[in-house]
Task: structure prediction
Amino acid sequence: MRRMARGALLGARGNSGVIVSQILRGMADAFAEKASVRGAELARALRKASEAAYAAVARPVEGTVLSVVAAAAEGASRIKSDDLLTVARAAAKSAAEALARTPQQLPVLARAGVVDAGGRGLVVLLEALVEALSAGSGPDKAEKPDSTPHAQADEKLCGQANEKPCAQAGEESRGQGGEESRVEAGEESRGQGDEPHTPAGESHTIGAPTPSAPADDEHAHPGDDERAHPERDRDEHATPGYEVQYLLDAEPDAVATLRIVLDGLGNSLVIVGTGDGEPPTWNVHVHVDDIGAAIEAGIRAGRPHRISVMPLSAHQREERPGRGAVVVAAGEGLARLFRAEGAVVVERNPSIAEMLTAIAATGANRVVLLPNDANTHAVATAAAREATSGPRDGGGPGEVRVSVVPTRSPVQALAALAVRDEQRRFDDDVIAMAEAAGACRYGEVTTAAREALTVAGRCRPGDLIGLVDSEVNLIGGGLEEVCRRLLDRMLGGGGELVTLVLGADAPASLEPALRAHVAEAWPFVEVQCYAGGQPRYHLLAGVE
Result:
């Protein structure tokens, strides 16, 4: 739990992410005192998590993830049972009901017709806990996620129960205390989960008093705290222009001073710490108009790093250049997959002119090309050079920036598109996509078209061959046998995720056979399978 909390903190992409990290941190602190966890311990941990979340926020606002975690804690506490699954179900149910109420608490959500994005994320985590606890409980299974109130709320408010409308809610509610923001490149915290843990019982949160504390106003009525008047903060700091976020190495006393300074500069202030290091590391998040002052305050407090600045106003977001992708692929199934990722698809072996047409079809100013073939790489590079230097739609030169991600297989393109983030700087996004593609080993099963001498021996026309990273590794045998041997060869070097793309002539029995083989031989590997419909290649496989 401490590793989860630290990873969530260092990888937080905005206000809600930082708050969720404190929820995990509060639960970790509660569990540290127990040798085992049952229902009562989970209820106690959720109460501590709720207190930590409220304490981390300078001006708590209801109708956000704070309301959802408070409801989860209350629902868990009401259950007169020590059964862990029963209490987890009650917490998830209460959280989902609170999520459905968030549009009634925040007018911006009601206007957008959505529920709070941060609260939706917390409900997903609690439902995942219920599903995990239910896995070994026999016939007494947990309720399905789509039967819970949050799914009904999504359907009612969003028109469909999915993530996208909730992300829009976060986009709409920036500055309201419940946004779901994004971050520039470098915010990823790879490997952070292995860093030292926070000592049990330590608390390093800086923020408002716990929910039960009164407001710091001599004229306040009893119970008249900031949570009851979220509009107070928005009136004082109406729609700041920028979200500033950074990690900060600083002593607690300096951070206490920083909180006061930033509270005077803007709103949506959250400062939380990991408790690790000398000095400790903190995640600082605030919405301001004066970017320089917010960063300078961090410099005075300690050493800021991973600094991220994000425009919040509508006109600033509209000025950001659009992003697009062009993918070379054959097969209707593959084309559908890539189009679902927002890419323009070009048939195999395209000309430079066809690539330029596809680049223009994206309608974007920043475009990545994924050639998926070594022979197409040169064409993609030439098209990128031409598109970047030449005029477009009657405009001047240099309007478009195009970069090539050197993918050699469609499975590498899928891996690259999975990490694409339009909120990063374009160059950093291209690097992240290239790294994801390079980390995906690819294999193919096809039929030899001619006789050749390979490192695996001599193949003849009609032989089934298995290739790993374009090198022939296997020759001969039945299709299922060659596919199984290919997967064993690829997974022998490690891997957690296998992506299978079935060709146009792949038999219906191939997918269940390969899934069963991986489940038996490699039980900790996840399998994703798609009907690609590609010619020539009976199977495309990627291992990440």
About this structure: Confidence is low (pLDDT under 50) at residues 140-237, 315-320, 391-398. The CA atoms of residues 116 and 365 lie 31 Å apart. The longest helix spans residues 84-105. The first strand starts at residue 242 and ends at 249.
